[in-house]
Amino acid sequence: MPVTTIDGREVHVDAEGFLTDPSEWDEGLGKTLAAAIGIDLSDEHWKVIRFLREDFATQGETATTRRVQTVGGFPTKQQFELFPKKPAKKMAYVAGLPKPRGCV
Questions:
Q1: C-alpha 83, offset from chain centre
Q2: Which of 10, 36, 52, 73 is deepest in the core (most CB within 10 A)?
Q3: Which of 3, 40, 103, 104 is catalytic?
Q4: How far is CA 102 from each of CA 11, 65, 71, 81, 91, rounded to the nearest angstrom?
Q5: Whose CA is closest to 88, among 10, 79, 4, 96?
Q6: CA–CA dist 9, 11 (Å, integer)
Q7: What are the angstrom distances between the C-alpha of 9 and each of 4, 48, 55, 65?
């Protein structure tokens, strides 16, 4: 796996820049990743990110937008408002998780 330097530290990423080791993530890195894709994190963003990380820890895979809606309680419309255009990919990227299955 490729290694890159983000926010002054080395992290393992895949070819698309998604972290491959979620344990290398922390909220400071999340802020840096969000800023890199033009997102200024609010409390609502953090609620979604924390849900994704907790869900990943129990499920072993990154939640899709459908799961974020049905299990997390965040309507799809809200996901698109918080993470415009490709919310599943952007949420996973900022949360330091692998790209969800089914994302192109």
A1: 10
A2: 52
A3: 103
A4: 24, 11, 18, 21, 14
A5: 79
A6: 7
A7: 8, 25, 26, 30
Alpha carbon distances (Å) from 46 to 51, 74, 78, 79: 8, 12, 13, 12
Is 87 marked active-site? Answer: no
- 103 token code pair: 């994302």
| Domain ranges within the chain, ordered by starting residue | 3-95
Decide: 43 and 35 in contact? Cβ < 8 Å. Answer: no
pLDDT tens digits, 47-98: 999 999 999 999 999 999 999 999 999 999 999 999 999 999 999 999 999 9
Which residues make beta-bridge pairs with 71? none
Strand (E) positions, the chain? 3-6, 9-12
